[in-house]
């Protein structure tokens, strides 16, 4: 359980810190936004839930790695290394988006980051499916929200 707590601390804690440091301010309030922009209060609970799902999925993939005594350890490591790597990359991209968008005001760069994030999330789902179907399924709401966020980011770029 200590490993799960570590994943939760990293993901939820990291997300909360980044959200606090790069909170939307006056700049965001002045942007033209599409009609499908959700109310501001939706973001904190949505991301908190998503960060919990992301952490649990990462932990599930991490705990499935074979031990040194496993006869098929090399094959198992190879099979799990891609989803684990994709999980790490998606987290880095996720944590990079807010500073690019809210702190640097680089809406185009943020769009490139969120599009890469969505591709990474979908690749994680596809590669984790065989290793841990639950971990893959935990990423489905994240994929849906990120697809929505990509469309929202693109619309903000187009309107501004």
TrEMBL record:
Domain of life the protein comes from: Bacteria
Chief location of this protein within or outside the cell: membrane
UniProt family annotation: Belongs to the TspO/BZRP family.
Classification via CDD domains: TSPO_MBR
Topology within the bilayer: Multi-pass membrane protein
This protein's UniProt keywords: Membrane, Transmembrane, Transmembrane helix
Alphabetized InterPro entries for the sequence: TspO/MBR-related_sf (IPR038330), TspO_MBR (IPR004307)
Name of the protein in question: TspO/MBR family protein
Cellular location(s): Membrane
Pfam families with a match to the protein in the record: TspO_MBR
Record-annotated membrane-spanning stretches: 43-62, 82-102, 108-129, 136-159
């Amino acid at each position: 359980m200590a490993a799960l707590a570590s994943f939760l601390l990293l993901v939820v804690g990291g997300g909360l810190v980044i959200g606090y440091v790069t909170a939307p301010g006056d700049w965001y309030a002045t942007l033209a936004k599409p009609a499908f922009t959700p109310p501001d209060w939706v973001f904190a609970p949505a991301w908190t839930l998503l960060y919990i799902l992301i952490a649990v999925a990462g932990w599930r993939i991490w705990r499935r790695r074979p031990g040194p005594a496993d006869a098929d350890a090399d094959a198992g490591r190879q099979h799990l290394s891609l989803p684990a790597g994709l999980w790490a990359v998606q987290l880095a991209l996720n944590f990079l988006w807010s500073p690019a968008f809210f702190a640097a005001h680089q809406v185009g760069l943020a769009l490139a980051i969120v599009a890469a994030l969505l591709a990474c999330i979908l690749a994680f789902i596809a590669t984790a499916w065989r290793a841990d179907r639950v971990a893959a399924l935990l990423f489905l709401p994240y994929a849906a929200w990120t697809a929505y966020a990509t469309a929202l980011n693109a619309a903000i770029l187009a309107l501004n």
